[in-house]
Amino acid sequence: MKRTTVLLLAGGLTAVAACKSTQSETTSVNTETTTEAAVATAETNLDYPDTKKVDHVDNYHGKQVADPYRWLETHTDEVDQWIKAQNEVTQEYLGDIDFRDNIKARLTEIWNYPKYGAPFKEGGKYYFYKNDGLQNQSVLYVQETLESEPKVFFDPNKLSSDGTVALSAFSFSKDGKHVAVGTSSGGSDWNTYQVMDVATGKMLDDKLEWVKFSGPSWYKDGFFYSRYDAPTEGNKLANKNEFHKVYYHKIGTPQSQDKLVYEDKAHALRNFYGQTTDDERFLILNASEGASGANALYYKDLADPKSTIKPIVNNFESEYNVVDNFGDKLLVMTNKNAPRYRLVLIDPKKPQEANWKTIVPESANVMQSVSTVGGRIIASYMKDATSQVVVYDQNGKQLNTVELPTLGTVSGFGGDQKDKETFFTFTSFTYPPTIYRYDVANNKVSLFRKTEVNVDTDAFETKQVFYTSKDGTKVPMFIVHKKGLKLDGTNPTYLYAYGGFNISMTPSFSIANMLWLENGGVYAMPNLRGGGEYGEDWHKAGMTPNKQNVFDDFIGAAEYLINQKYTSSERLAVAGGSNGGLLVGAFMTQRPELAKVALPAVGVMDMLRFHKFTIGWAWVPEYGTSDDAAQFENLYKFSPLHNIKEGVKYPATLVKTADHDDRVVPAHSFKFISELQAKGAPGNPYLIRVDVRAGHGAGKPTSLVIQEYADTYAFIYKNMGVNPYEGEAQNK
């Protein structure tokens, strides 16, 4: 399919914005058992801001449910004042941790290294993204050949003084003369599209607003894109998004003249994403009713002026992803009757499944992505959450496998059928992203660009274990730590997971994780049910009504780490973002004694009302909805907001969100922390950290990211009674 770089993940929840560490100083954390005195000094009683309660009660199928903080769902001056007051308490607490500045300094030091993206080719030239080290946004460079001097092509850092305007989409026309540029402000999912003249670098007058969950897909002298109608009233960052439409924009014309290509007036809660094939023969429309993967598929034969949009698959039972077209046939990756995916060839004029031709059948491993380059089909697979790459000819005959350095994760392999080379990036927990060139015809892999970091990554080791969850299911988990780690139950441990939306958590390098690891910490990442690591069956095992399996898997991971003496409950921090924020919220309300620190970020905390805001309705297939009596009962059992109990001592909690998050609106976090501060037993701090001019996580400036990690680590260490820079308990 035509290359469209969409830098903001669309369509629902993502695993962004969760704390994933960096490197730190060479000083090691003191792993001696924390004394009672040290634990006592970590306890604190804070004077939280007064949060008013309103007398609001909802009736859910005969059950009365109070919602005293409903007013925090609005965007008013009163809410802004509440945010300011909460941030002041949080920043005063964090500012009183004397080693926070040391953490930030080390993070800044090790963050400052060049970060490259893999090259890609457009209009006969090579392009790549690069961040010099501490730039807020990565810069797009261009070079005539791989050996010529790169030149800056587009620098999003010039779009704002504080780095909060980010590049969200970038798509070249087929002739390479124009590029559609998408930007987002303050972390919002709302995008603005413009058109740049490649030769001059100047923006044309074209300006498209209210674009969301889209990518520009070129056809002739314009492109297809998706948007909503402009909000007419209320809060544009919280209002429910309805009636997604597909338009065609012709270069040089105002948005008001864009041609409406497709809409569905009968179904307000469907999203439509348009893509053109590389040869611009077909327009493919992906229609979704939720964010869990299943979609319908429509097409238009652009070679026939009289053609209309017709269905290929007109239900939402399985997932279909058009990879390419071979003439008048479409190459489609699908999990229809293949939970681990297969590759089929479909004639859109005869779309019935009986007419499909299997090109690559389902295998024991999960097919994760497919590309077509140089007359080959390149398929990336997952085996126990690590990558394998297999190359086929266009008839599905296996030709070879691509040699990878070790167990880890690959991405890339983009390009066109005419290309003789492609590039991919390999990474793992202790393997910084490294770019390789792949000679397609000769199956040769060569190092293209190695990443150099200011950390001894050879000092750490990664292992994969399989532990038993509550119902007997075996769940894999990666554990990373210093070589020679003593299993004495005293190691500070950071347990991070996601568990939902068919999203797979695979090994990847985080410079922030290095800080945790070099100070003697353990980083653990389990592959919970609800993810895609073992295909659709694994995903469905963590969807409604089976969502509790995900929480049980996470609890099981914590118990394993404690039982195997990697850590103890006094030295365990649990973290997750978005759907992972829900995970942490459920964990801490179901097993509050199991961890010392809880870090729910941009989480879905009110499971009874999530579908009322922005794109929240798209998560109903994953979670269920309180509008249904049986699903309400299930949601009510684990909804973090509704399961905080009076007088229970919960883990030290730092809730993280952002005022411009229009994916998971911050009201979830606002209401959760208000309930926690009102009901939680004293002793541990219950704080919220609200980023200003930031969103769900994508596009966040480097400066804000570093500060967030510094605050997060300082909070963890203080509440574990550990000073990473003095090797003794923090007694401040």
Automatic annotation (TrEMBL):
Residues 507-721 form the Peptidase S9 prolyl oligopeptidase catalytic domain. The keyword Metal-binding does not apply. It catalyses: Hydrolysis of Pro-|-Xaa >> Ala-|-Xaa in oligopeptides. InterPro entries: AB_hydrolase_fold (IPR029058), Pept_S9_AS (IPR002471), Pept_S9A_N (IPR023302), Peptidase_S9_cat (IPR001375), Peptidase_S9A (IPR002470), Prolyl_oligopep/macrocyclase (IPR051167). It is an enzyme of class 3 (hydrolase). This is prolyl oligopeptidase. Residues 1-17 form the signal peptide. Belongs to the peptidase S9A family. Residues 49-450 form the Peptidase S9A N-terminal domain. Keywords: Hydrolase, Protease, Serine protease, Signal. The keyword Methyltransferase does not apply. Its EC number is 3.4.21.26.
